[in-house]
Amino acid sequence: MADSSDEPILNLDSDELETESVDIQCDVNIEDYVNVDDGVNVQPSSSSSPLEPFISMVFEEVEDAQAYYKAYARRKGFAILTNHTRLSRDDKTLRAVDYVCTREGFRWVSRNVSDRILPEPAETKIGCKAIIGIKKDGEKWVVNKFVVGHNHILLTPRSTSFLRGHRGVTKVQKKLIMTLNESGVPTRKIMSVLSQDSGGEFNVGCIGKDVENYVGSKRRKIFEEGDAQRLYSYFLDRQLKEPGFVFSMQVDNDGCMGSCFWADARSRTAYQYFGDVVIFDATYVTNIYKMPFVPFSGVNHRHQNIMFDCVLLVNETAESYTWLLRTWQEAMLGRATATIITDDDKAMAKAIVEVLPNTTHRLCLWHILQKFQKDFRHCIHETITTNEFEQEWALIVVKYELGENTWLQNLYSRRDKWVPAYLRSTFCAGMSTTQRSESMNKFFKDYVRSSTMVSDFVHQYEKAIDARYFKEREKDVQTKSTRAITKTPFKIEEEAAEVYTRKSFMIFQDELFNSLRYQAKKLTVIGEAKTYAVTAHGKEIPFYRVTLEGDEVHATCTCHMWEFMGILCEVNGLPQHYVLDRWTINAKARIILDIPCFDDQLSQRQDDPTMRKNKSMLQLYDIVELASQSAEKHKHFTLALEKVHKELLAMEEDVEYSQAVPTNDDQIGRSQVLSNFSQTVQDPPRVPTKGRPKSLRSKNPKETQTTKKKHCSICKNEGHAKNNCPSVR
């Protein structure tokens, strides 16, 4: 530093210092030599320290001096930084340090300043001369120079918390920030939580930009380590801990991650109970690589959405879908679903025909209905039999002269995949659209976003699944601890309340009430079969045909509600063979031997480090609340805490956390889907997604119509409007 200054510089034995050590002008930060806590507002080690520094002032350690001057600067209204250090010529140990005001010196002028695109930031360096210097004297550190004066306005102690030199993110704050960030909480709300915990914004010790920088640094570190490799390592670790967890990952010739599939024991077991109808939707993007998120979902015995597995696809080709369906079927013990509901995607349809030839493929009715007018909607929804649909469809086609419409003809040729009249006899658990899947997508938005990395996505997915299963358990407890309200004296209603889940019972109850509104008229008797015409009292339509077999315990109705949903329509009795297990309270009573029990694994993980930490945090929170009631209690708590801290540090504890859960090797071999790679898995390329692929799905003619070109009202030319007309300019 230059010695020419308007302020007197008090220098103690500076000549002697220069002869004893080498002045290495390398601007080494003090934190490179000492272990300085990363917290802010660090106070001096001694509470009896003088308020003003002075020459010959002695400190035990260099960090004590730094903490003291930092606290002094905070009170006075400025921030400090390490100006330069001196190292010993012999062993390169630290011998002297100078701390200066952050406004010391002047900005370095770049030669490329004329080429600058962004506006130049405000000036911070204005040549302030405030400084404190310390040197090592034996085992102590002594102040050998001190300049008080500043050539700028000093802030109030409250305002100094915004200065960079007094800002920082503590270890406790870092953990809280990452927890909130992983849960999808934005920066502004993270700052609100930190402010609440700190007793005000001025006590937080950092600003929103510091939080963003910290999160950004963690993300950059993940990219350096390899996002895909972290995901692969997580899968391997998870599989060791949970033998029921399965995964499969594709890797291309360059070692980059391709499509990725995984499912835990809970989801695989749930599929064995409720996998008769599956919704398959590939229109949701939730990660930084724009890889479509493809959830396989369905409905459980409580009519709640349920996830069977999760997939990230590298693209939306028939080959990718074929790989996905084969992997999915293998993970689900080779069991194919009875019905699958998807969007109108040709690549997806091709893969389903190849891999699931015996599965009924339905198209999402909701998306198709968006393209139709009111007359078509009535034809599709209100017709009961296929003959009724065909007659009404033909009349509408003639009425609107649509016989030559190729798009409509193509859709009509596949009517067995989307028209309810053709699908009423196929069990679909009451579903005809992919809206349950889209509802799940909306649910996932609380956990993931388009900037989520794949290694973070899998953790957020697990949190979302945990939340879903928690809701299911909540409903289980509610059903078992309460009694359904019956509205009739019929014994059949009491029987239904005993076996059905609460939601299923409410549906059954509605049908029981509706049966009182209908009347039956015998039509024919052929042998032992009796056919009745069922209509609402005083009405002739809609007309339902009910056929009873000779024993009158087997019935068929043209509405096919039993076949479509698994619950009887217009109930007069409840034979046991008409109680579908998947809607009952005991739907999950059957044990799936080929999949390890998840509850057993959960109980084995109760003593892992995370569970121990959470338990301690809950206990500590109660103690902290009690200690904050008075200064005496707080002092007692602080002393006890320091004592416990020292004892824990002194303990030589060999913690061996067993990652392996006792497993059956034969069982793992049968149930797991493994993808082992000898090389490091590289991050996938960022590729654009098709959404609902325009190039593959059938289009409504309205979608292909050319949009009307703009016409300028001034010059009458096309291609622009009057607000940007060239003639006006």
Automatic annotation (TrEMBL):
Domain SWIM-type per the UniProt entry, residue ranges: 544-569
Function (record text): Putative transcription activator involved in regulating light control of development.
Organism classification: Eukaryota, Viridiplantae, Streptophyta, Embryophyta, Tracheophyta
Any one of the GO BP annotations: regulation of DNA-templated transcription
InterPro entries: FAR1_DNA_bnd_dom, FHY3/FAR1, MULE_transposase_dom, Znf_SWIM
Protein location: Nucleus
Protein name: Protein FAR1-RELATED SEQUENCE
Pfam families for this protein: FAR1, MULE, SWIM
Domain (FAR1) ranges: 68-155
MULE transposase domain mapped to chain residues: 277-371
Keyword Glycoprotein: no
Basic residues compositional bias, start-end: 689-699
Chain positions covered by the region annotation Disordered: 676-729
Keyword Nucleus: yes
Source species: Carya illinoinensis (Pecan)
Molecular function via GO: zinc ion binding
Keywords: Metal-binding, Nucleus, Zinc, Zinc-finger
Highest taxon in the source lineage: Eukaryota
